[in-house]
Amino acid sequence: MPTPTDPETPVIEFVDVEKRFGSNTVLKDLNFSVRRGERVTLIGPSGSGKTTILRLVMTLEELTGGYIFVDGEPLTHREKDGKRVAVSAKEQKHLRTRIGMVFQQFNLFPNMTVLENIIEAPIHVLGQSKSEATAKAHSLLEQVGLPDKANEHPMSLSGGQQQRVAIARALAMDPEILLLDEVTSALDPEVVGDVLNILRTVADTTNVTMLIVTHEMSFARDVSHKVMMFDGGRVVEEGAPEKIFSDPTHERTKQFLSAVLRDA
Amino acid sequence: MNTLTPLFTAQPSGEATGNIWDWDFALEIFPEILTAFIQVTLLVTVVGTAIAAILGLVIAILIRVLPTPLALIVRWAANFIRMTPIVVQLLVLYYGFTWMDPLLIGFIVFGIHYATYMSEVYRAGIESVPKGQWEATKALSMSAGRTWRRVVIPQALRSTIPSLGNYAISMFKDTPFLFVISVAEMVSVAQDLGAQTFRYTEAITIAGLIFLAASYPTALLINRLEKRLAYAN
């Protein structure tokens, strides 16, 4: 299948996205797009729908209205004769392999070693050879500072180490899009810096598009090209991090930032 | 005033010895009882457990992945089998399929009956796998087959081993029911031996001790397996 490589095509595009859980509407009329290589941070109070956006892109939640496009192709539904029609499982999987996600709770497979966690999908989803996948896994483990942990089981690692393995596992799939869902929220404060530094390096050395939900404002300021402030399922304000953090326009953004920055 | 006969009094030896326990007789019948144990009781338990363990997992997965109406049918059938006595099931197959070898009926009935119990154990095990594990497999685009084989089943099994082992022991102790379909399993062989000489004590005690000697190490083995399956740390 041809991949649209037109640099002008947004990597992710939300069109009139709506997400309801039962009668509770979490996102409404949401429209935004992310350019290739762009790093976008979503900030806002809990329950504002930030994590839901990431989960919709990863297809972990069902889209209840509107359309999401990845590389210009519909991720869940397409419009056909004025109706919303679900895309085939095959089409969706084809797009999903370009998306990687790192979770708040790491979600490593406890029954596999660190190495097995990393090489499982490259071998069985991407069809890499075992030696190729293993070599790449070792170099990624080196990159995340855990070169000697390949044969350990996740449960014998600390939270920070587990999250670094989870980052390596996601990167092993060579994703175009990396979704980072509060990746430091479950970590001890003293290891948060290590994990963020690894992600900074990833941001600096690759062209991977990132969609980030975090409460680490200095990290958001350092790595993002764009910050979007959410409240009640809507974008309140968006712009360059320097602008949003130093000179926010909206009262809601000012309130939110003063609250989180006071805590920091 | 004591009118009871003491249990261990010297009695004239011979056929009708009044001793409650006769070692010579016990040693004489032991090989026959042990043979029945190995050839029937153990065989049915091992084959039945193998069938139950595999079929139980298949049932649990089917209930989980089939479309709702079909899943309901599987669940209903499993409940039906679980809720009816194993003796009735043995008799139904015995009289319904007279061409079938009774031992084969034993394998099938014990295997299927216990599969319905084990499927419930597997179901609980599958449900105990955290949602985040499923989400991780989806984020890695793993196929449904790989997800079950490499992630869900291994993690579900870990918590199910003790219960599965207990059902295996329970099946083992149910094997005397095979007497209703005239399979010469250990207890009926012991009973026959007793009936021939009117010395039931030795025969039945030996059968009981063989059960104990087999169950207890099995329980210990399950314990060890459970510990080995626990994650590193």
Protein model, in words:
Chain A is α/β, with parallel strands linked by helices and 264 residues long. Chain A has two domains: 1-98 and 203-264, P-loop containing nucleotide triphosphate hydrolases (Rossmann fold), CATH 3.40.50; 100-174, no CATH class. In chain A, 37% of the residues lie in helices and 26% in strands. In chain A, the strands form three sheets. Chain A has a six-stranded mixed β-sheet with strand order 8-9-10-3-11-12, with helices on both faces. A four-stranded antiparallel β-sheet of chain A has the order 2-1-4-5, with helices on one face. A two-stranded antiparallel ribbon of chain A has the order 6-7. In chain A, helix 6 links the parallel strand 9 and strand 10 (209-213). In chain A, helix 3 runs parallel beside helix 5 (159-171), helix 4 crosses helix 5 (159-171) and helix 5 packs parallel to helix 6 (189-205). Chain A is globular, with a radius of gyration of 19 Å. By secondary structure, chain B is an all-alpha fold. Chain B has a single domain, classed as MetI-like (MetI-like fold, Orthogonal Bundle). In chain B, 76% of the residues lie in helices and 0% in strands. Chain B has helices spanning 23-65, 68-83, 86-96, 102-127, 131-139, 144-174, 186-197, 200-229. In chain B, helix 1 (23-65) runs antiparallel to helix 6 and helix 4 (102-127) crosses helix 6 (144-174). The longest helix of chain B has 43 residues, at 23-65. Classes of the chains: A alpha/beta (264), B mainly alpha (233). The A-B interface holds A 58-60, 93, 96-97, 99-101, 103, 105, 107-112, 120-121, 124-125, 152-153, 155-156, 169-170, 173 and B 130, 132-133, 135-136, 138-143, 146, 150-151, 154-155, 158, 231-233.
